[in-house]
Amino acid sequence: MAKIVPLFSSSRGNSYYISGNNEAILVDAGKNCKQLELSLLQNEIDTKTIKAVFVTHEHTDHCSALKVFAKRYDLPIYATRGTLDALVKGEKVDKNAKLFAIENEVVLGDMRIKRVSTSHDASESCGYYIETADNRKCSVVTDTGFLTADALTALKNSNAVVIESNHDVEMLKNGPYPFILKKRVLSPTGHLSNVDCAKVLPLLLESGVTRFVLSHLSQENNTPRIALDTSVAVLNSFGAVRENDYTIMTAPVETNGKSVIF
Ligand SMILES: [Zn+2]
Ligand SMILES: [Zn+2]
């Protein structure tokens, strides 16, 4: 069954479990191995179903569990060439890790995974577009200052999307972050705001996306309520009715057992 389980999501740790019929992958492996294992256990996920870890970029919140987890379960790691180089340089992977640069697409059993570009202050960050055997499609696009053309295409072609809704701009501006960090988050290589996320959702809905997972919410500069209200208000203004026309949730900081079937 095509399913997304948002295991962790925040500036402190990110990981998504995405399954097809027979196989599954993880997109990112934040937190630490023990927390990741616990999260998988809480969701009754058999680690044997996981065939690989796909990494979006080398920032700690996306790969701090990677070294131990990939080694323990003997999993290949896929990422862009630039991200792999950064992971090796930062010793964020084991020296014997099975690393594969994803050029365009990878086929793993009944899943087909493509990378899409993101705009972020990392070596060569990316998002992922995943197709399952029964022709179900989802995208994971987070950590991006804006949506690149190919990320937007992937999102539009999906049934379900995990999309960044990082911050409320006013909360960020008036919040505790130092000026330099505020500037970084707001820059074209920073993070997608609630409004930037919300304004693309009607276009996605029109293209056939019916499952939205708002993700990578800042714990300092956002709340699940504000992120949801911002997106739902924009969709409402286009006449779309929540639960009738689409479902929407915020990815929890740590799993709460919710998943999205697509
Ligand atoms: Zn991040
Ligand atoms: Zn990042």
What shape does the CA trace take? globular
Largest sheet: 7 strands, mixed
Radius of gyration: 17 Å
Termini gap: 8 Å
Please identify, by name, the CATH architecture. 4-Layer Sandwich
Number of strands: 14
Domains counted in the coordinates: how many?
Answer: 1
CATH topology: Metallo-beta-lactamase, Chain A
Number of helices: 9
The CATH superfamily bears the name Ribonuclease Z/Hydroxyacylglutathione hydrolase-like
| SSE order | EEEHEHHEHEEEEEHEHHHEHEE
Binned strand content: 15-25%
Q: Which structural category fits the helices and strands?
A: alpha/beta
Strand arrangement across the biggest beta sheet: 6-5-4-3-2-1-14
How would the blueprint of this fold be written?
Blueprint: E1 3-8, E2 15-19, E3 24-27, H1 33-42, E4 50-54, H2 60-63, H3 66-72, E5 77-79, H4 81-89, E6 99-101, E7 105-108, E8 111-117, E9 126-131, E10 137-141, H5 149-156, E11 160-164, H6 169-174, H7 179-186, H8 194-206, E12 211-215, H9 224-237, E13 247-250, E14 260-261
Parallel strand pairs: 3-4, 4-5, 5-6, 10-11, 11-12, 12-13
Antiparallel strand pairs: 1-2, 1-14, 2-3, 7-8, 8-9, 9-10
Helix pairs in contact: 8-9
The site of one zinc ion has 5 residues, from loops.
